[in-house]
From TrEMBL:
GO terms for molecular function: UDP-N-acetylmuramate-L-alanyl-gamma-D-glutamyl-meso-2,6-diaminoheptanedioate ligase activity. It comes from the Bacteria. The gene is mpl. This is UDP-N-acetylmuramate--L-alanyl-gamma-D-glutamyl-meso-2,6-diaminoheptandioate ligase. Its cofactor is Mg(2+).
Amino acid sequence: MHIHILGICGTFMGGIAALAKSLGYQVTGSDANVYPPMSTQLEQLGITLTTGFDASQLEPAPDLVIIGNALSRGNPAVEAVLEQQLPYTSGAEWLSRHVLQQRWVLAVAGTHGKTSCSSMLTWVLQQAGLAPGFLIGGVAPQLGVSAQLGQSPFFVIEADEYDTAFFDKRSKFVHYRPRTLVINNLEYDHADIFPDLAAIQRQFHHLVRTVPASGLILTPAHVPAIEDALAQGCWSERQAYDASAKLADTDWQSRCIKADGSVFEVILQGQVQGQVQWQLLGQHNVDNAMMAIAAARHVGVPVTVAIEALCLFQAPKRRLELLTDSAGICLYDDFAHHPTAIQTTLAGLRAKVGQQRIVAVLEARSNTMKQGVHQASLPAALNEADKVYIFQSQGVGDGMEHVAGVLGDKARVFADLSALKAELLQQTEAGDHLLLMSNGGFGGLQQQLLQALQQKEADYV
């Protein structure tokens, strides 16, 4: 059977391609821009890639076309699929029908932390010998790939609330039907498709409806947005997690031994189970780890085994990833783009570096930022940094100037990437921590700064 995937180079669709190939299908695909690392991963699997969406790529006609949610009516390939009446589906629907049937699905949902938490959970299950399948929106170094069929009934999936396809406006995660569901957090995001928080809560309610009575829903304790969503109906066992270790009515608690989150205790029903000592930083990663431990316990992994596994865990790419420590400057790359994620990332780094200077560089490119939704909360989120540079990408308007104005003299806005790069290289100095935050490629700024700093250090020698 020949499957052709439109929009194949996104992490989710690339994962679908890898799973389809593993099942023995002939897989081809196309995208607007075919580029590494996903293009490399797909080509290594023997998947033929086409740049662009010309209708000729559908000749001869494939048996099935899987259409990514970035494509819409008016796209030449989409129009050809409809005109020729070719069989088509979405990635989430194909996954549900051909991979997740009869599997024990462990889904990780929420506004933030999905990739990190699902990577941790997959790693824990692997270390416990359960050989799970998985599909994750990133690549943890120890997993090596973003998707794998696995050799057991268990399948871990990053459960995204974004819509499924141009013909299916439900959130992708309603297709997954988990038995173990993690809801890490719930905030307003994706302003391009959701008018308000209530619309997102409604989709989470639809997800909760698919969890069987014998399943488990894991949430943080007393989060109003989550409680409101669950109040619409919940038919499964619930367990709650409290990061403060002060609430007596929670099943799970954590207690940081080090302020930066690099060492913390795991507490279950009032009893300390052990300590995680690892390379990751920040309360948000402690929270992700606790959810992973609790989810793994639901499929039979002892808490002590999960703790031992997480002590060896390495973060996925672009999660406060240290790219280099050259010329005395630490350069980090992070995916943070929502104010809460920005704030928690900066807090974790601050706890690690103390009074050393943090230079935060944010690419304001998400659809939600372009609509001005986060302008009021961004200044507080960025306040932990000593210097703030905001790259105002096309279509953002003047909202970032307002953010910089609130932050005062320590903040500047740039519209030209080369000028921003020159400013960063001129103003940063030995001892600084330079943190780049973007949910996109940032125009290659990460690699440009990496090369420049390494050359600067070489010139010193």
